[in-house]
Amino acid sequence: MSRNLLIIPAYNEGASIQGVIYAVRPFIDGDIVVIDDGSEDETADLARAAGAAVIRHPCNLGIGAAVQTGFLYGLNRGYDYVVRQDGDGQHDPKQIPRLLEVLQQGDADIVVGSRFLAREGYQSTWVRRVGIVVLGIVSRLVGTHVTDPTSGYWAVNRRALTVLARSHPDDYPETEALVLASRAGCRVREVPVIMYARIAGQSSIGSIYSGFYMLKVVLALLIGRLRPR
User: H or E segment at 154?
Assistant: First the structure.
């Protein structure tokens, strides 16, 4: 029987974290760990009270570091499959079994939940949608085509876990991580998922920073393409 882990990176998600943990519990046959990335609110205490294990960064290190901490936790503790879901309530937990099912069929090492395959639910702001299209084109040019390259709703097997736990982009990591893993030989597949607007709080990628974010990731992808495999 496989050992499954759900990781939830969180920063100041006190208003939503307990609701997210209660919502995912029926859909994950395994453990839940929240990586509190130096929150200034009660995210860690609330997550423990809801029954999750908690790893707490001493200060805010960014979403990439939080996800990598979760992957390291899963790798070092011998989990077979790790699902990543955000702590803001945007991801529909009913689709966790589907992500794991595709992995367990053995034809993918990473399964990405895409909101743009079925085009149901929250489709993000137009600014971010433009950025997502651009990143999708660039990721295809460097060898990894996905329709929702900024999705934070993933499942990975042990092969991908080994790659991403040891080498992971620092911030705004999803697109870079997909390309990195693909270049390391990991097979990527998308499945349609439904996403919702945030329960509370603000995204770390606001409208002002969307342009900077897109430029940074595009440059990182192109530079990464020049590195030896």
Answer: strand 154-157
**Cα 220 to the chain's mean position, in Å?**
18
pTM for this entry: 0.83
Residue pair 222/137 in contact (Cβ under 8 Å)? The answer is no
The type of residue at 11 is Y
- What's the one-letter identity of residue 117? L
Q: How far apart are CA 188 and CA 197, in angstroms?
A: 26
Task: Retrieve residue 151's tokens.
Answer: 């999705």
- Laid out side by side, the sheet with 81-84 consists of 53-56, 30-36, 4-10, 81-84, 154-157, 110-114, 188-192
Count CB neighbours of 222 within 10 A. Answer: 12
Q: Region of 170 please: left (phi>0), alpha (psi -120 to 50) or beta.
A: alpha
User: Does position 132 have pLDDT exceeding 80, yes or no?
Assistant: no
Helix (H) or strand (E) holding 30: strand 30-36
Helix (H) or strand (E) holding 66: helix 63-76
Distance CA 57, CA 142 (A): 33
